[in-house]
Automatic annotation (TrEMBL):
Name this protein carries in UniProt: DUF86 domain-containing protein
Organism in which the protein naturally occurs: Halorhodospira neutriphila
PANTHER family on file: RNASE YUTE-RELATED, UPF0331 PROTEIN YUTE
Pfam family, one: HepT-like
Keywords: Hydrolase, Nuclease, Toxin-antitoxin system
SUPFAM superfamilies: Nucleotidyltransferase substrate binding subunit/domain
Amino acid sequence: MVQAEIIRRRLDALTEHLSVLERLATYSETTFLEEPERYGAAERFLQLSLEAFLDLGNHVIADLGLGPVDKSRDIPAILQQQGYLDAELAETWLRMIGFRNILVHAYLDLDRHQVYEILQHHLDDLRALQAVFAEFL
């Protein structure tokens, strides 16, 4: 059985992060890119969101005894195999993990236009994944 308080705290943090990201998405691309505080905040809140999903996935897998996690990319696969994620959302999450790795490890090569595109077109992906974990409450 999963520990509801652990899930709830991370989901609450995700709600806050998404609220900030939604506000940042209201800027035009030019306005967004001309202010380091805007794109820096977007990068950080995306990273925090993606870290929260990894924490949630690890927690669920460990508490339910679903199998070993050797690397973060194992998490969506395990949850899909166990029927908690559909294939499309699992694939989307894998892309999110790849982007998280860029945010953390290859930040000097980060394309800020890509960050803006994520704000414009992929916040629903974050919400969909958030809804999956809300089901564990």
